[in-house]
Amino acid sequence: MACRCGDSSRAAPLSNENDDQAQPSLLVFSGGTAFNGVVEELKRVTTRVAHVLPVSDDGGSTAEIVSVLGGPAVGDIRSRCLRLSDESTCEALAVRRLLGHRLPHDAVLAKENGIKRLELLSLYEIVEGLHFLWKDVSQPYRETIRAFLVYFQNEFLGFCGIYSTTTFFADTPSSSQYFCFSNGSIGNFFFAGARIFFQSLDAAVFLFSRVSDIPAESLVLPVVSTNDRLTLGCELWDGTIIRGQNEISHPTNGLLEPINKESSTAALPSRIKRVFYMSSEGSNLLHEVFPVANPIVLEQLSKVDSIVYAMGSLFTSICPSLVLLGIGEIISSRSIPKVLLLNGSHDRETSGMSASDFVTAIANALDRTYGDPQKRLKKLPGEYVNSLLVPRGGQVPVDTECLAAQGIFHVVTVESILDPKLGVIFDPKSLVEALVNLIRERKYSRLR
Prior knowledge:
Blueprint: E1 26-29, H1 36-45, E2 49-53, H2 60-69, H3 75-84, H4 90-99, H5 107-111, H6 118-127, H7 139-160, H8 165-168, H9 186-198, H10 201-212, E3 219-222, E4 231-236, E5 241-243, H11 245-249, E6 272-278, E7 288-289, H12 295-301, E8 306-309, H13 314-322, H14 327-333, E9 338-341, H15 355-367, E10 387-391, H16 400-405, E11 410-414, E12 416-419, E13 423-426, H17 428-447
Parallel strand pairs: 1-2, 1-8, 2-3, 8-9, 9-10, 10-11
Antiparallel strand pairs: 4-5, 4-6, 6-7, 12-13
Helix pairs in contact: 1-3, 1-17, 3-10, 7-9, 9-10, 13-15
């Protein structure tokens, strides 16, 4: 089932080859953070975008939900849905604020006994409909959202063996023994409640899209349509195996704190060779599993005007969507723009890498080069990436000769912004203009 507003039974095709004036259609592989800053600018130009996101994140409040109630990670999907949500009315803005709200962040109070925890008090007010965030939310929306928040709460209470909401919200430590609500996302709680109720991730995305009033042409697609937990692993070149997306990308000290991927963390002992999926209890290569790609993702890959690999965490946000069977096969068969948005700086995953190294990593993921030999492809890098958009002044070296050897000759420099926390990032408006121009130029050149 496609997950979009307006049709619960199937996805509308994003591309129409006979309509040259139509909005360009894109499929974007991304995570839940870096590309978010571009989404709102992009939807001013086109809403015909399929956003493909991983469901293997195991950090933040997502980790708490997954560890207690199981299921796939929904944090990245929730984040993108919020960015795409309607803002045209007071009620739409109120719903967006509510589902984007996080509980108070106080790790001490969250774990301290004998004190009424601020985050639980805030959650109680929201679940009971008493919080100021419900202002401007009409009764139908209010009762729909509350129903799934209550369902999430009841599922959690049952897991904890607590059968009274009075006990749950009392001055006792019982609930915090099982779950840390600090900095918890109301949108994640709503999403989890819907997924468990329907026993379907697709249905939960559809409901969230309806409630958020996402444009009908915009699809938010989990790369794997599953109701089970997915665990990401990586193999380093020195043979080390690391389990868990958070441990690969930005390991923490065990406290539930807001993720800062740019914060100082210890370097990996070796470069990343590949990422793969592991069984829930696995710890080595013998526990590799092979989830099936969402069929709607495969369908949209065969229809869109352009494929985009967004900036962000290369190995933990982008590559998890590329290593699945069928993805590389379809991408390599399409004669359309296949655009890499190059990061403006390095992170723990990509330290020392050049632009051509990014391309190699993407090609290896799509080829499944270092996995099961029977599932391996042998395509050229240029069959997967044929254009690069580069932020001006970025720290990642653009080695044009190596890119040319890979079959990539179209490299465009885009205006950038120096963010005090993130470093060099694309200027969103300039990036969208460059991307749309590239797509239209390629499309018209094929028609001549």
